[in-house]
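Researcher: Please translate sequence to structure tokens.
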Amino acid sequence: MAEQKKKRKWGDRRDGRRVKAPGLQTIMAYLFPKRTDCEVYLNDKIDATALLSYLEAKNASHPDYKTTIFHAAIVGMARMVKERPLMNRFIQGYRMYERDEISISFIVKRRFADNAEESLMVLVPEDEDTIDSISRKIVSNVQETRKSDHATGGIDDTLDKFAAMPRPILMVVVRIIRWLDFWGKTPKALTEGDTNYTTILCSNLGSIQCPSVYHHLNNYGTNSIMITIGTLHKEELLMPDGTKQIRDVIDIGATLDERIADGFYFARSLKLIRHIFAHPELLDRPIGEASGFEYE
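Model: Translation complete:
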């Protein structure tokens, strides 16, 4: 069962509980109040050879339905955040908060064309979810989104209405929204479905044959982690036994707000992602179940 949300206390936000931050992180929030001033960028190559074999065997059992590398990456990120809760924190209004739920967002291109519109999509994995349930949720949501070339409701429709306002009015409205964002009072109608209010914003650049790139964070909202997934390719890697092998590799880039945790914590979180890709059978287990990974 999914973990029950804790009762909110004084100082909490609707989208997060206030947590006591160490002195250094507290002062950093005042010295560097903008998230874009505190970006840390990590770039790594992840061996996906075992994952590809796993997906090939899984998809052979249902050729009409395909589980992809991107689906596996989403589940891997969710498992990582569940096991590494500091990755689910954010700083807004000079204070640190921790979310009650994990949310992963990405952008869906309605058609692969230059003038095609984009739609925002947010996935909230539950503790009992596995790669099978997450994969079906993603496919179902993407198919529903691509039924129309234009926004059909939700946050996309709201953004279109704001964009239609005259410039002076829109400037005032945006100032009010940013003020509400600072104090954690932004209406749910504006935050629900907005990628700026999720744990991880992910970009699947491999789907358009593009390598992983650096992507900035945004000062608006609460998103503290941006991840880009690059194209799958062959590359020679040095194996643990000292030999060199040609392996299937995925480039991954991650931009993080350094105020939510330290580099040691970030590095261990990346190691967990590598471990999951190397042991893809973990993807069949519920997200809320510990991986058993031993950190070195």
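Researcher: Any highlights?
Model: Residues 37-149+193-284 form a domain with the Chloramphenicol Acetyltransferase fold (CATH 3.30.559.10).
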